[in-house]
């Protein structure tokens, strides 16, 4: 298979290979927000909703109909957010065109109160996915992950239950076949 793997960088997506058994990452689509050859990689799982709203988990938070997602197994006592209003939210970091990470929390609450940030503008995560220096490349080399270009539509528009299959379908050819592998294999 002499193909060189795509370069790991912010704004890319990682899809778990279909038979990954780690329950944290089974059929996961991870949006990479930071990659640094010295410090490692940080991302958030886009398709693991926790079936709880942000207002049910965070005290003194303005009312917003926004579901909380499981971002990954690291720092599960931390709250993170990615959004598309970087020009409004001070201290946010542009990950790619149309997608920003973090920002000033008090300003975030103000913008939500003013309805300048709506549910379709933001995703909230408990925890994150993290890899130490060289770890993600190692996992990619053994075939644990399939990498794809990111797109703001994957982050904000496509329903989380359809995301893993959709990204693989969009990659085409072999990946469309992989996307059809059932979640539960049964042997007759």
Structural account:
This protein has helices at residues 54-57, 105-113, 135-141, 152-156, 160-171, 173-179; strands at residues 12-16, 29-36, 40-45, 49-53, 67-70, 74-83, 93-96, 99-101, 122-131, 145-149. The radius of gyration is 17 Å and the shape is globular. Strands 1, 2, 3, 4, 5, 6, 7, 8, 9 and 10 form a ten-stranded mixed sheet that branches. Helices cover 23% and strands 32% of the residues. It starts with 11 loop residues before the first strand and ends in a 9-residue tail after the last helix. β7 (93-96) and β8 form a beta hairpin. The chain is α+β, with helices and mostly antiparallel strands and 188 residues long.
H/E topology pattern: EEEEHEEEEHEHEHHH
Mean pLDDT: 90
Are there runs of 5+ residues with pLDDT below 50, and where?
none
Secondary structure: number of strands: 10
Helix content: 10-25%
Class from helix and strand fractions: alpha+beta
Question: How many distinct helices?
Answer: 6
What is the CA–CA distance across the termini?
Answer: 32 Å
Largest sheet: 10 strands, mixed
The gyration radius over C-alpha positions equals 17 Å
Gross geometry: globular
Residues in β-strands, percent: 25-35%
């Amino acid at each position: 298979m002499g193909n060189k793997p795509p370069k790991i960088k912010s704004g890319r997506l990682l899809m778990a290979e279909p038979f990954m058994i780690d329950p944290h990452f089974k059929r996961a689509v991870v949006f990479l927000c930071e990659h640094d050859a010295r410090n490692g990689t940080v991302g958030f799982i886009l398709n693991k909703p926790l079936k709880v709203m942000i207002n049910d988990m965070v005290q003194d938070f303005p009312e917003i109909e926004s579901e909380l997602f499981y971002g990954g197994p690291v720092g599960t006592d931390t709250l993170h957010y990615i959004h598309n209003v970087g020009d409004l939210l001070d201290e946010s970091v542009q990950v790619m065109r149309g997608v920003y990470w973090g920002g000033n929390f008090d300003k975030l609450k103000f913008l939500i109160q003013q309805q300048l940030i709506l549910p379709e503008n933001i995703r909230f995560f408990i925890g994150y996915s993290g890899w130490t220096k060289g770890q993600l490349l190692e996992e990619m080399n053994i075939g644990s992950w399939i990498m794809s270009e990111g797109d703001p539509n994957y982050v904000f528009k496509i329903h989380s239950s359809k995301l893993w299959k959709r990204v693989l379908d969009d990659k085409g050819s072999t990946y469309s076949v992989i996307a059809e592998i059932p979640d539960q294999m049964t042997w007759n």
